[in-house]
Write a structure and sequence with these properties.
With about 250 residues, the chain is α/β, with parallel strands linked by helices. It has 9 helices and 8 strands. Helix 1 runs antiparallel to helix 2 and helix 2 packs across helix 4.
């Protein structure tokens, strides 16, 4: 709570800048029918803004794993499903800034009412989900699965909300329907150290390190095979929890 004003500046300033220097130009490109160029601009722009924000915050995010093979899959037009733990407000920036891929998010509906940020999220082909209403939640997951089938990669945080303690929360099985209904490969992502670097930092000028671990892609089973789907959810959750609980070498 001590540096909450500084934290808000570090998040809000890049977001507002992104609206004018990224969202508006990308929207113009889309109106001209240049969708791929617009997507590329958004990807590049968010990466630059995110890395600039990390530099301002004094946070170094190290990527571990064979990220290049994942990027190669995305370049072929294959839609992937990224499953990640969620402990910090910087998690999304870390994924988009360090992975440097076109990806959308299954974002909570509350973000749809945040000025500037809502436009940026929408431009990444993201889907807003209202977790309080089951029918709308299911519809959002199906919409995300459809986007994956069309070649867009999507990210979802199966805990449903950001952990306030730094510990990984309970994974909601419904979040995995995006993968099982699309038949996509799932890439488990483990984010470690961002909460300590941002929300829980002790000193404003303290420089910290965080790690983004990119796991091996795993083919999702058919959603109709409940036993296989249940086993699959446990497998991905275990991978993320084990990685989070271990010391990952850079």
């Amino acid at each position: 709570m001590k540096y909450i004003f500084i934290r808000l500046l570090l998040v809000s300033i890049p977001t507002i800048l992104s609206f004018f220097t990224g969202v508006i130009p990308a929207l113009i490109l889309r109106l001209l029918g240049l969708r791929k160029a617009a997507d590329g601009l958004i990807r590049w722009h968010i990466s630059v803004i995110a890395n600039f924000g990390f530099w301002l915050a004094g946070v170094r995010v190290h990527v571990v794993g064979d990220v290049q093979s994942v990027r190669d899959r995305v370049k072929t037009g294959e839609g992937l499903c990224f499953i990640a733990n969620h402990t910090s407000m910087l998690d999304v920036l870390a994924l988009m800034g360090k992975l440097k891929m076109n990806m959308g998010f299954v974002a909570k509906i509350e973000l749809a009412f945040v000025p500037f940020l809502n436009a940026l999220i929408a431009m990444t082909h993201s889907v807003f989900i209202n977790r309080r209403k089951i029918k709308k939640s299911v519809a959002a997951i199906r919409k995300a699965a459809e986007r994956i089938r069309k070649g867009y990669s999507m990210v979802i945080f199966p805990e449903g909300t950001r952990s306030k303690t730094g510990e990984i929360g309970i994974f909601k099985p419904g979040a995995f329907r995006m993968a099982t209904e699309s038949g996509a490969y799932v890439v488990p992502l483990t984010i470690k150290g961002l909460r300590d670097s941002f929300e829980d930092r002790k000193h404003i000028f303290q420089r910290r390190d965080a790690i983004l671990y990119v796991g091996e892609p795993v083919k999702a089973p058919d959603s109709k095979d409940r036993e296989a789907s249940s086993s699959f959810v446990k497998q991905i959750e275990k991978t993320i929890r084990d990685t989070y609980g271990s010391s990952v070498d850079r």
